Amino acid sequence: MPEKPVVAVIMGSQNDYEKVEPGISLLRDFGVSTQVRILSAHRTPDEVKRFVQQGEKQGIKVFICAAGMAAHLAGVVASHTTRPVIGIPISSGALNGIDSLYSTVMMPPGIPVATVAINGSQNAAYLALEIIQDSFPEVAQKLKDQRKKMVKKVLEADKAIQK
Amino acid sequence: MPEKPVVAVIMGSQNDYEKVEPGISLLRDFGVSTQVRILSAHRTPDEVKRFVQQGEKQGIKVFICAAGMAAHLAGVVASHTTRPVIGIPISSGALNGIDSLYSTVMMPPGIPVATVAINGSQNAAYLALEIIQDSFPEVAQKLKDQRKKMVKKVLEADKAIQK
Amino acid sequence: MPEKPVVAVIMGSQNDYEKVEPGISLLRDFGVSTQVRILSAHRTPDEVKRFVQQGEKQGIKVFICAAGMAAHLAGVVASHTTRPVIGIPISSGALNGIDSLYSTVMMPPGIPVATVAINGSQNAAYLALEIIQDSFPEVAQKLKDQRKKMVKKVLEADKAIQK
Amino acid sequence: MPEKPVVAVIMGSQNDYEKVEPGISLLRDFGVSTQVRILSAHRTPDEVKRFVQQGEKQGIKVFICAAGMAAHLAGVVASHTTRPVIGIPISSGALNGIDSLYSTVMMPPGIPVATVAINGSQNAAYLALEIIQDSFPEVAQKLKDQRKKMVKKVLEADKAIQK
Amino acid sequence: MPEKPVVAVIMGSQNDYEKVEPGISLLRDFGVSTQVRILSAHRTPDEVKRFVQQGEKQGIKVFICAAGMAAHLAGVVASHTTRPVIGIPISSGALNGIDSLYSTVMMPPGIPVATVAINGSQNAAYLALEIIQDSFPEVAQKLKDQRKKMVKKVLEADKAIQK
Amino acid sequence: MPEKPVVAVIMGSQNDYEKVEPGISLLRDFGVSTQVRILSAHRTPDEVKRFVQQGEKQGIKVFICAAGMAAHLAGVVASHTTRPVIGIPISSGALNGIDSLYSTVMMPPGIPVATVAINGSQNAAYLALEIIQDSFPEVAQKLKDQRKKMVKKVLEADKAIQK
Amino acid sequence: MPEKPVVAVIMGSQNDYEKVEPGISLLRDFGVSTQVRILSAHRTPDEVKRFVQQGEKQGIKVFICAAGMAAHLAGVVASHTTRPVIGIPISSGALNGIDSLYSTVMMPPGIPVATVAINGSQNAAYLALEIIQDSFPEVAQKLKDQRKKMVKKVLEADKAIQK
Amino acid sequence: MPEKPVVAVIMGSQNDYEKVEPGISLLRDFGVSTQVRILSAHRTPDEVKRFVQQGEKQGIKVFICAAGMAAHLAGVVASHTTRPVIGIPISSGALNGIDSLYSTVMMPPGIPVATVAINGSQNAAYLALEIIQDSFPEVAQKLKDQRKKMVKKVLEADKAIQK
């Protein structure tokens, strides 16, 4: 796998870090070089555009975007690239993530955002891995191994409860 | 009042026109020069930025933005200007406007959008008029007159029903 | 800037103070003379009317209203003035602010309320500042400076996370 | 029963008439003198106050208020009287009555509104009749008779379907 | 005022007591003899029926019913009486009171329930007092006095915050 | 299979018939003697109780209850029997079935209602058939046959679309 | 009653155990042999299928399935059997159980899931007991006894509060 | 591009075809060989598994799944493959797609579904195209061309409205 970043994880605010961290860890566990950025669709729109356009040229294959409330980050990123963009709605504020879910998933035709569950950073990472697996066959194999580990973990819990 | 545009009305799609038209009419009834644009936050982000920055320089005092679904237009416009931005959530698609309401109103601190009711283009226009009234005193007077007309209209309906 | 109040912040109950305070601080940081009141649309309707009508005459340019549950305060204030009224829905009670959001934003045609996010007192303040900037040019400049500070703050957090 | 009005039915707009009419008919079927008004909490706040305060003095025992969207009418009426106020949330606009339900029922402590179902004008009338029955014993008897008629009607439909 | 109960407060479960208590206190502060019962629409339907029918005969003028989740208590009570029934939706369980609000307020035509806010026991009590005031004139006077106290309390808080 | 009714289908109102009919047809297609009643939890509570208690004695094994709005019917039926009660929330009125879903499914501990989808009368019937299959083995076999028919129907549609 | 399992309780994750435990206890209090499993519809789909098909052959009469978020477990189990399947939506994650309620109850025609309240494991158990009572008459009697205990418990609480 | 299918579009029911068709057309316009299937997660679980596992072996790179109500199809498909799965929630039934949105997007960690807007079949297709572009460079170029066409279309509408 290349040393330069393959996946970018952008979050709208420092406060989102804790909820996004499990996804970042997963990507790194898979050995995928991941660039982590804090960029705000509303406060730093120009920086977002620059990063996305440069990133695409420099080999970023998937953009993961996490934001809360009126979560426009994933949509704004998607407006600047034709690479797959994955949106993680973050629960923050009084509406607890319903607002960010709707703001992320209800995109109009033409500019898709692949949305995962509220705070679903792990699945955002898994989805990114599934998307890049054709370019990096070692990822494909690791995904299959990981599934087997999941099965094993469930079956162990299942055994434990039956005692 | 100046001939060059004072208020801009931007809608995200041609389909929103019917719901935005009452607000445009109202602004014109008040004699306010109004520029109407169709610009998409997602499909034409660069054009949006250019228009907002130029518009601000050329004297646009208020931006009214109407969009449906994951309605990012008002937020994106607000990210490019410190002029007041008014957002009209449009009901379109399966969620009937709840999605656009949340996407428009739940803005994070620093980049405000003055949100009106779903499809509330008239109130968006009234709000714009209230905002520009200090610069254009004739608007201030007309707003007061309009309120009196509203009272009269209600009282007439009230009289009619009592018969 | 004048010493007499330019912006009024009305809250429906003492309990809302903590959530409204960040907005009040921001207005004062901008050097805007701000009058803070506790007035209830339902318990003190006459006092609300008197304050709004007098306030308008004495130079209040924008009314900010914060209320929870069936939040009628902003609408009632708007019914007594043609100055811009900004509504802050407050999360309180079992519905956590959805009730106050709907009660504030879904105003019928003719009486607009510029609604911000639930508990969004900072954006209410920013919006008020954007509205009064034509009358007080120093505010216009400070708004632009503040945006730059926001950009800087995001970029610093961005740098920090990349280490 | 007195000839002067005992129950007042206020609606916020002419458009609500069709949904309120079944309740008005019911009150009249019961022989209760009913005053029907169109008054807007936002457009005619002074007229609302005047009517409620005079009405109370002239013998109105119950106020029924019907309004849609950010339905403040019942709350505003309740703020001017200690007579029972019944609120009918009307479905109108994109949120189809959820907004008016929350705006009507979620009143803060001290100013109650007796809320019925969305568009529930018949139950508003029944509730008013139940409230005034101590003052007008013929109403008490008619309410009991009406219940028996309801039972009969259900049982007839029940018989019909069993064939 | 009579010594025998005039208002009945029924709650569906012991757990609701804390949320209902402020309403009970208020009724007692007004000197209204109040009967408090724990009766479940689902577990003790026969006891509910017996109590309502006997209560009505023995002079209960208003029934206040508090219940959570699929809150059928107020509706079931209303099915056994033509006295006014007030429903308090209680927040309990995962839906936090939305379920009990809908179950209480959306009654079909013919059997009204006067619904107050989620956990709104104080307003249930105020509403009961407003309903019984024609039978007990001292209540009518106290209600007016109480409103004045509310005004005073708000104005004191208002004064305090202006310092 | 016995000639006397094994399943009872109760609906709260004649208006629900069209939405309940598919379930009734299905039961009859399976050769299950089905008693169809119109009984209202609120208008005819005594008749509901009588029917349920007698029905249970006379061999009704499952009660299916369909009701809209504040749908208390299934809960009230369940309060009078320990036979399985299936609730069908009916969409009617402004909330389109969310109210009846919550009123039916969110039952407190002790009195269960087996809830199916809004307007899900077919699944109510299937569930009743699954419940009675141990008493009537021909039903068990027919259920398995029906599943095979479903598979076949899907596969036929699948074939058709591939052409 | 047989020693081999009659009811199966499957939960999608170890984390659901605490919310499911009251239902398991109840089944065991009734002397019903209950098999408890942890199996995930998404992580161990083959194991779910195998268990359901074998379980049905070995005498499982009712399957109770508890899962959170996009709760597919009950639906997947129901797709493999014509025995009654009871679904318990578990509150977990940002949507607090609304997601699991909709995912469990809104099943398409043909594959029913008997849904109980969010976290309603006790009612799931009661429903299972009601379903198996025809095969195990001692359960039928215990259900009636349990109802009497419930009545007694409510009446005791009722007495206590009246003092 | 290969002649054998690269993208599979599975819908849960024939009734979903009309809402899924725009996405299928788009894929074919891009020259991508697309296999369209009707398969039900609940009625034909074995066929779903077989198709997904064989499809993956035979070169399907992305699975698009469209389903309504308790939409388990995408989740079930995802449980059988580590290829990217895209879910389209379909609006059908009383909840109008909220149910299918939650059932599709709120997947637990480990089994991701890339969710698009309710009825968003076009964006599902765009997302699939973005995902396969690394394997088929002609797709990458066409995606960029398509974006330019979108811009052009918006700007044309924008010009038209300014006249």
Quickly describe the structure.
Eight copies of one chain form a homooctamer. By secondary structure, chain A is α/β, with parallel strands linked by helices.
The pLDDT mean of chain A sits at: 97
Oligomer: homooctamer
How does the helix and strand content of chain A classify structurally? Answer: alpha/beta
How would you spell out the order of helices and strands of chain A?
EHEHEHEHEHH
Q: How far apart, in Å, are the first and last alpha carbons of chain A?
A: 44 Å
Topology:
8 copies of one chain form a homooctamer.
Chain A lengths: L6 E5 L5 H13 L4 E5 L6 H13 L4 E7 L4 H6 L6 E6 L7 H8 L8 E2 L5 H12 L4 H26 L1
Parallel strand pairs in A: 1-2, 1-3, 3-4, 4-5
Helix pairs in contact in A: 1-5
Structure description:
The structure is a homooctamer of 163-residue chains. Chain A is an alpha/beta fold and 163 residues long. Chain A has a single domain (7-137), classed as Rossmann fold, CATH 3.40.50. Chain A is 48% helix and 15% strand. The first copy, chain A, has helices at residues 17-29, 45-57, 73-78, 98-105, 121-132, 137-162; strands at 7-11, 34-38, 62-68, 85-90, 114-115. Chain A has a five-stranded parallel sheet with strand order 2-1-3-4-5, with helices on both faces. The first copy, chain A, is globular. The mean pLDDT of chain A is 97. Chains in contact: A-B, A-C, A-G, A-H, B-C, B-D, B-H, C-D, C-E, D-E, D-F, E-F, E-G, F-G, F-H, G-H. At the A-H interface, strand 5, helix 5 and helix 6 of A face strand 5, helix 5 and helix 6 of H.
What keyword list fits this structure?
homooctamer; 163 residues; alpha/beta; Rossmann fold; five-stranded parallel sheet; 6 helices
